[in-house]
Amino acid sequence: MIARRPLIKAAAGSLLAVHLACLAQAPARMHRIGLLANASPQPRMPAPVEALRDALHELGYVEGRTIEIEYRWAEGKAERLPELAADLVRARVDLIVATGDTSIRAAKAATGTIPIVMATSNDAVGAGFVASLARPGGNVTGMTAINPELSAKRLQLLRELRPNAARIAVLWNPADASHALKAAQAAASLLGVTLQLFEVRAADEIDALFDRIVRSKPDALLVFNDATTVAARPRVLQLAAQHHIAAMYEAREWAAAGGLIAYGVTHVDLFRQSALHVDRILRGAKPADLPVEQPTKLRLSVNLATAKALGITIPQSLLLRADEVIE
Question: Is residue 235 within 8 Å of residue 211, measured between CB atoms?
């Protein structure tokens, strides 16, 4: 793996270091944090969640001594999230960290008083989680990606990778990605590309959807990042490889796991940054007064091993602009 530019992780780490230098030790009393995720902790804890825990530790919090984390995992079954969120409310946690739009929506529906920190959101304002980035209002703050604005860029990169692509399949969840889809449709019209839409609402729908995608014979595939597609990531990557489909993804983690190309945020860094919001709220700040933050760095990641397996030659122009080339 070749890193072409400084990693976001270094920037996030420096921000935490500056924050630490300005603070005394974390409060001594025990705080209870709820973590609501559509993911599964098996076979191992998701890397972004580990990054959040590490960041909290760096901020002076120690699990079992100053914080207790109540984990609620939907394990890819998003329909379980409302009850899991209600369970955290019943447990009287001090704060809920919600990971992804579906989890945030469930947490927000469950409580209007317990602070909610978004570890990541596709579009916090568009989804109605906050009134604005600068003045969230209510009980929600945290991190938001800028996926709607990036949809056009991803289509441009996909066309650069596959210049003759006229039909691009889109794997998306209407519950989480409607604003990103509108931006992609506007970009597709300008690029002269036809988007073929395939809705996914549950991880167990992936196989049947790929059968339909393959029958439609697209020139490429764009996968929107949401709780459902992330939960099904291994299967999505396996099927894209099996059917030799050139696919663009929205986050670096997809390329690192074997996806062909990705442009967007790194969720590990978003989760690390969200720890700062957790810390400020536990120290007495109100979510309504804490601006929602966006990533300061986007990454273009290209997986050359996958390209070779698919028989695709990555244009030199893309390789020169890549932040990371995975070999």
Answer: no
DSSP state of 26: P
Written as six digits, the tokens of 96 are 């809920």
Cα–Cα distance, 250 to 141 (Å, whole number) = 22
**117/192 same-domain check:** no
The DSSP annotation for 132-199 comes to: -SS---TTEEEB---HHHHHHHHHHHHHHHSTT--EEEEEE-TTT-HHHHHHHHHHHHHHT-EEEEEE
- Number of Cβ within a 10 Å radius of residue 209: 17
Distance CA 218, CA 240 (A): 12
Indicate whether 136 belongs to any domain.
yes
Number of domains comprising the chain: 2
- Residue 113's pLDDT is 97
* Residue written as token pair 């989890």: 103
Q: Are residues 36 and 181 located together in one domain of the fold?
A: no
Angle at 46 between CA 126 and CA 244, to 5 degrees: 80
Q: Reduce the DSSP state of residue 21 to 3 states and report it.
A: helix
Count CB atoms within 10 A of the CB of residue 127.
Answer: 20
Q: Residues 120, 125, 96, 174: is their CA dihedral positive or negative?
A: negative
DSSP annotation of 327: -
Q: Low-confidence residues of the chain, pLDDT below 70?
A: 1-28, 147-148, 177-178
Q: Looking at the structure, tell me whether residues 106 and 237 fall in a common domain.
A: no
- Looking only at the bridges linking them, the beta strands covering 2-3 and 324-326 are antiparallel
How far is 103 from 109, CA to CA, in rounded Å?
10
Q: Do 119 and 99 form a contact (C-beta atoms < 8 A)?
A: yes
Strand partners, 196: 169
Residue given tokens 């317990």 in the structure block: 114
> What's the pLDDT score for residue 24?
44
Distance CA 236, CA 238 (A): 5
* Separation in Å, CA 22 to CA 76, 273, 276, 292: 39, 16, 12, 21
Q: Which residue is it, tokens 């394990």? A: 75
